[in-house]
Specification:
- This protein starts with 13 loop residues before the first helix and ends with a helix.
- It is mainly α.
- The chain has a 3-stranded antiparallel β-sheet with strand order 1-3-2.
- The protein has one domain (about 15-120): Orthogonal Bundle (Arc Repressor Mutant, subunit A).
- It has helices at about 15-20, 25-35, 40-50, 55-65, 90-105, 110-120; strands at about 40, 70-75, 80-85.
- Helix 2 crosses helix 5.
- Helices cover about 60% and strands about 10% of the residues.
- It contains 6 helices and 3 strands, in the order ααβααββαα.
- It holds the Pfam family HxlR.
- GO terms for molecular function: DNA binding.
- It comes from Corynebacterium vitaeruminis DSM 20294.
Length: about 120
Amino acid sequence: MTLAYDPYQRACPSRQFLKSLGDLWTVLILGALRDAGEPLRFKDISQRVDGISTKMLTQTLRAFERDGLVIRVQYAEVPPRVTYELSEVGHDLALALQQVEKWATSHMDEVLAARVAHEQG
């Protein structure tokens, strides 16, 4: 039996997950992994997502791994090598968020104009 999740209900666990989806870093990290088309190392993700701190990238990747969005592979090499790639469910989410990303970039002129108009009052 599948539970019926309803994010409009306060106790629904989907609320916490949806909250994390509204985070800038979530959208950008998933997008970087989606666009890469191959597993990426931590440094590669960090370079792609300009401005993210090491701490925030680490926390976000751990949360993604916990939620089953990324697959983390640690290789038994010296020096150690770790890669990250989207799981199937992570890829599906990254594609959905790509639409939000496209909307933001294609409508940014309107958003900025609305902000100016609002401030001018």
